[in-house]
Specification:
13% of the residues lie in helices and 35% in strands. The protein has 203 residues and is mainly beta. The protein has a single domain, classed as Umud Fragment, subunit A. Strands 1, 2, 5, 6, 11, 12, 13 and 14 form an eight-stranded antiparallel beta sheet that branches.
Length: 203
């Protein structure tokens, strides 16, 4: 007859199993992020807590840049989390505007992809001034060719976003996942939850 496991051992095994599952889920399936800045307003507010699906763009094999089980690659319009090219220890969140092979151009705050005006209902502008191309790349830039394996990304709060206009392209291998849903939102200035944002899909 087998000896019954001790209570302590049962709890220890349950906790270890739960931790391993949590690590696997975080590494390969879904991960939580908090929005620290206003570059994606109005889509994402400061204090929004979001879940990011990591498996949709493929599962990254540890200690390599190889991905397996790729459902699809990032598309124009996807809101993605990625390693900031100038400091890979930091995570950024922006919207994909151009994919490999696209030509992206900014003309007086309007964005053109492959010569066609991009319909951007998600964009917010807070400054009516138009900066010339010689002065700043905020409102006028390009045309820029997006190399294969790269992405051109921008923030929805277009006049207040530090993005590909300033520091260049995002490598596909630096993409962590696609923003999926807001599971919690906290208004730091009012010290209140934004209940109307909880459960909202990120589009």
């Amino acid at each position: 007859m087998k000896k019954k496991k001790g209570v302590f051992r049962e709890y220890a095994e349950a906790i270890i199993t739960a931790l391993l599952l949590a690590l696997i889920i975080r590494a390969f399936v879904i991960q939580a992020f908090k929005i620290p800045s206003g570059s994606m307003i109005p889509t994402l507010q400061v204090g929004d807590h979001i879940l990011v699906t990591k498996f949709i763009y493929g599962t990254k094999i540890p200690f390599s840049d190889t991905r397996v089980l790729v459902f699809r690659e990032p598309r124009r319009g996807d809101v993605i989390v990625f390693k900031y090219p100038q400091d890979p220890d930091r995570d950024f969140i922006k919207r994909v505007i151009g994919i490999g092979g696209d030509v992206v151009e900014g003309r007086n705050k309007k964005i053109y992809v492959n010569g066609k005006l991009l319909d951007e209902p998600y964009v917010q502008h807070t400054d009516n001034d138009i900066r010339s191309i010689g002065k700043d790349v905020r409102d006028n830039f390009g045309p820029l060719y997006v190399p294969k394996g790269k992405l051109f990304v921008m923030g929805d709060n277009r006049d207040q976003s530090y993005d590909s206009r300033y520091w260049g392209f995002v490598d596909l291998n630096a993409v962590k996942g696609k923003a999926f849903i807001i599971y919690w939102s906290w208004d730091g200035s009012r010290h209140l939850p934004r209940l109307n944002r909880i459960g909202r899909l990120v589009k």
